[in-house]
Design goal:
mainly beta; 4-stranded mixed sheet; elongated
């Protein structure tokens, strides 16, 4: 089964079944160099595709928000925490982080 979570809250718990995919949709400002990346990926969870894919917003105004889409697939039962960070590659500290607890049955 495929699940979608739009703008998840830090610490959010998401129930899944083994083999389910989870599409995590995260907003970020465009033109700033910030990108959502997976910073902590536990065993039993894989990133589908290359990494975060970026979708344009509905307006063409400079600096408009865009959406990064990260697809995760949980393969084994148990609880695990996936961490994502909104960061620039050349900076040491992320602007924002989100931790998601995947509860896989």
């Amino acid at each position: 089964m495929h699940h979608v979570v739009e703008s998840p809250e830090d610490g959010q718990r998401i129930p899944l079944a083994a083999g389910d995919s989870l599409e995590v949709r995260l907003r970020h400002p465009s033109g700033t160099g910030y990108r959502w990346t997976v910073t902590d990926l536990p065993p039993g969870v894989v990133v589908g595709g290359d990494d975060a894919q970026v979708e344009a917003g509905t307006s063409s105004a400079p600096g408009q928000a865009r959406t990064s889409v990260v697809e995760l697939v949980a393969s084994s039962p148990g609880e695990s925490v996936v961490r994502l960070a909104l960061e620039r590659p050349w900076e040491d500290a992320p602007l924002e982080t989100v931790s998601l607890t995947l509860a896989v049955s």
